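Budget justification aside, the reviewers requested a transparent look at the raw inputs and outputs of the sequence design task funded under Objective 1. We therefore reproduce one unedited record. The lines immediately below are the structure tokens for a 217-residue chain.
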């Protein structure tokens, strides 16, 4: 028997309306850019009054934070699905990188906000949506660290601190984001994918041990 609490009608309406507003915000931001959009435009795209928007979000900054949280939650689900799937660590890593670059390409209009926060040196956040975003990023780092640790335990990756490898990969992904933003290149992620996969395959993974080598170990 399912004893989990059922959502109330008000909670269901709030969740539905929030999704609708965020979907409308995404469409408007893609058209006008992160700085140029207005709450009136989002209200019009969502089919609600401007005042309704402010029942759910206090302003543009909170709305953007909600979008970033939504993206982060979806990314974590996709990344966890890859890491928990059958297969070897060296098979999972290219899939994980492909997912991360795909998000970087699709959500490129949010990257300037992410980059701004990173430039500040990740200051402590005590409450609010930014705290949620920080926690999501910590979970993302933990998942990648887990993948690198699995690869080293299996003897498939070079020995190193798995958390260090995670931060190195994160730095490479951020570099693609900065290139995408600075050069206004919508295809930057696609261009970077084969380069990153080559660097990882040649610099990180180890070839399978030969039968003779396996017998000596």
């Amino acid at each position: 028997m399912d004893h989990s609490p059922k959502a109330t009608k008000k909670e269901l309406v709030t969740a539905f309306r929030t999704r609708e507003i965020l979907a409308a915000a995404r469409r408007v931001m893609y058209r006008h850019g992160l700085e140029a959009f207005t709450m009136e435009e989002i209200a019009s795209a969502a089919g609600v009054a401007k005042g309704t928007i402010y029942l759910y979000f206090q302003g543009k900054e909170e709305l953007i934070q909600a979008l970033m949280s939504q993206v982060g939650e979806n990314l974590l689900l996709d990344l966890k699905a890859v890491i928990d799937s059958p297969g070897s660590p060296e098979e999972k890593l290219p899939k994980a990188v492909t997912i991360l670059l795909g998000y970087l390409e699709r959500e490129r209009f949010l990257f300037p906000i992410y980059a701004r926060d990173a430039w500040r040196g990740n200051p402590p956040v005590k409450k609010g949506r930014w705290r949620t975003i920080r926690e999501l990023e910590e979970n993302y780092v933990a998942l990648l660290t887990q993948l690198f640790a699995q690869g080293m335990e299996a003897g498939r990756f070079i020995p190193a601190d798995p958390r260090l490898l995670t931060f190195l990969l994160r730095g490479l992904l951020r570099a693609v984001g900065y290139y995408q933003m600075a050069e206004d290149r919508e295809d930057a992620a696609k261009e970077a994918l084969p380069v990153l996969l080559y660097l990882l395959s040649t610099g990180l993974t180890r070839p399978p041990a030969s039968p003779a080598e396996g017998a000596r170990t």
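The chain is about 75% helix and 0% strand. The domain at 60-206 is CATH 1.10.357.10 (Tetracycline Repressor; domain 2). Computational costs for records of this kind are itemized in the attached budget.
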